[in-house]
Amino acid sequence: MKQDIVPIHSVQFITNEIIELTFISDYLSAAAKPGQFINIRVGENFPLLRRPFSIFNVEGSRVSIVFNVIGTGTKVLARKQKGDTIDVLGPCGNNFLSFVDDSFETAIFVAGGIGVAPFPFLTKKFPASIKIVTFLGGRNKELIIEKGLQNVRIATDDGSQGFNGTVLDLIKDDFSKHRYIKPRFFVCGPTRMMKAVAGYAKEIGADCFASLECDMACGIGLCQGCNIEMNGGEKKYRLVCKEGTIFDTQSVKL
Ligand SMILES: Cc1cc2nc3c(=O)[nH]c(=O)nc-3n(C[C@H](O)[C@H](O)[C@H](O)COP(=O)(O)OP(=O)(O)OC[C@H]3O[C@@H](n4cnc5c(N)ncnc54)[C@H](O)[C@@H]3O)c2cc1C
Ligand code: FES
Known about the structure:
The chain is an alpha/beta fold and about 250 residues long. The protein has 2 domains: about 1-90, Elongation Factor Tu (Ef-tu), domain 3, CATH 2.40.30; about 95-210, Nucleotide-binding domain of ferredoxin-NADP reductase (FNR) module (Rossmann fold, 3-Layer(aba) Sandwich), CATH 3.40.50. Helices cover about 20% and strands about 35% of the residues. It contains 6 helices and 16 strands. The protein has helices at about 25-30, 70-80, 120-125, 165-175, 190-205, 240-245; strands at about 1-15, 20-25, 35-40, 50-55, 55-60, 60-70, 85-90, 105-110, 130-140, 150-155, 165, 185-190, 205-210, 225-230, 235-240, 245-250. The longest helix has 13 residues, at about 190-205. The two termini are about 30 Å apart. The mean pLDDT is about 95. The protein binds flavin-adenine dinucleotide (FAD) and FE2/S2 (inorganic) cluster.
């Protein structure tokens, strides 16, 4: 993990609501693994705390993130332009590929909203021998990004694209029509959605690994502010930023 000031290559809307910001970093492009995040100091003096963002894509020495404008940090980020610089710290956290072994045959990627962010890079780096099916859920079509994904099924709350309903309803519908051999779920999105998908995975006897959401003050294991309670095991709590963000959903109290 390293802190660096890097030049911005581009900032562009890829849907009406989602912005892709690409910067150049030889170090991060070589070191980053899918599911890891970077901590960005978005402004020089304000806001004080860094904001975590999943690594969306790596191409050559270019690294990109995607975000929608929510509050202070993302408003500042959205105003950046090609040629500006940003202060990045990373790569942080564990990665999805450490949960890939030979005990499953179909990878089920499930993303809610901007939780789609880690999946294009994961798809790119995933073993080619494993079939991937991707389920995307969003409030509306402006929160859906299909770029870089495989075998995509889409659900929107307002029915503006794909299945009209939640991503879990779509998964259940799809699983009733197809037989997926030895599925394993990889999930990122709002906690409520991840909890529901984890419950379904358990019901059908599949493993489920989710990248957990939480507020992070330091993002590097120093402030102890991102504890998650475990379901037994040697430690009662673990740090999401350092020991996660990805956990076996059966091992944590979601
Ligand atoms: C490991 C990790 C990876 C992340 N990856 C991404 C990513 O790839 N893309 C991305 O856009 N965001 C990502 N986030 C969330 C991101 O770090 C910021 O929290 C988010 O973008 C809002 O920052 P802000 O400074 O604009 O809002 P703030 O000013 O911090 O918050 C403004 C208001 O919005 C609320 N709020 C904060 N975050 C959210 C949220 N996610 N949904 C709804 N309300 C919220 C706050 O409670 C507050 O009331 C990630 C978070 C984590 C922990
Ligand atoms: S955010 Fe500080 S320890 Fe995790």
